[in-house]
DNA sequence: CATTCGTCAAGAGCGGTGCTCTCGTTTCTT
DNA sequence: AAGAAACGAGAGCACCGCTCTTGACGAATG
């Protein structure tokens, strides 16, 4: 409350920021497995135990990096999509896809931390879920808008009875559409991230070279499947 | 060549097999990050340095586990698909998809090792590529067969000029089809693995519960997109 | 002003890891 | 039988996450 307390808090916040910055740099170069608290401390001129004043464990440091990553990816796609004409649904979809891919290709290790194999003993705390849905909210919003504008084709097949009610958890991100469209959106979502994971994790190495063009075409195929109008 | 030499070689082969078995069990329970050469040695009653007589490094042990994994997944999908009527293309597609998913759900850590974030010492040797394409050969074969039987719809959009020749690396797995169909197959392939990765890596936790049914519907959507006939 | 009290960096240490090297012993080859 | 190759054991190196204790500093309180 007082100025002195705020001063101490400020230097603490600054140190936390510095730790996460260095950690993020190490993550970018060495990957999540290579992130070492001792190396971070060394780079800061501190002793390793001092880090534990600011992060109770390595997993907690990873958690803040994960949240930051989700926010970065969410902000990238939000910003890119917001610049599109609202009624160009295919354009909004493609722009969002490319924003996502650009970020993923530029930050492969961070992408792997977010969407790759979960780290061994790591359980995502609740704090992450708010940040992790920003991209799917954007993607779902495009499909929702397109459907409600009548600028989208009805899905080729309807979901079976056993999926009754299963769409509830997803619908909040793609509101105002029938179940079939929700599942269509899920399919598009998984196709998008399936490509990104394949590309970032190197599954295309040696087989597909112009990955940006191939990705663009693949996402156009997905848009065409949904009948997204321009 | 002689019997005595074969005897020594045989015990060596047996030890290698035992090491990989224990390692695979540890991989299944603790994940790739938790796989420890020392723990394997401990469980075998050996000292850790003795392991290095059989595997020059931890990465080499992981590599054989990766190859085994690709072969296991390839064999599972090959066997399941081979049991389908040859002219039921949608059935073959769905069967292959479910075989893949069943294996992935049953072996999440192994799946993560194959299709998740690459491990730190991550350069996959050439030995893996022969095993890693068995599943895509099956999937590509279905699409190729369907196309040549006239039991498949032409893709909604054609690939752009810049993708000319880019399909070459993929076409060997889906022979005898035009470029547009190759890219359609790639899209289906990425959609399939995108779903599996999302499910295995826990992205559906809390939102989609009946994942088998949802997966089934999603793969039926993909089949419908390709117009696979039954 | 002096004294408590909380925060902090530092250091030592524990148990774990991958990996290397050496040293006898065993086993195969010649 | 002699030499060569393979082998298991052990010690050791450098690293890791994490814990605990110690001493210094600064802010709030008497």
TrEMBL record, chains A, B:
The keyword Cell cycle does not apply. GO terms for molecular function: DNA-binding transcription factor activity; transcription cis-regulatory region binding. It comes from the Bacteria. Residues 13-73 form the HTH tetR-type domain. Coiled coil: none annotated. Residues 36-55 bind DNA. Keywords: DNA-binding, Transcription, Transcription regulation. The lineage of its organism: Bacteria, Bacillati, Actinomycetota, Actinomycetes, Streptosporangiales. This is TetR/AcrR family transcriptional regulator. The keyword Transcription applies.
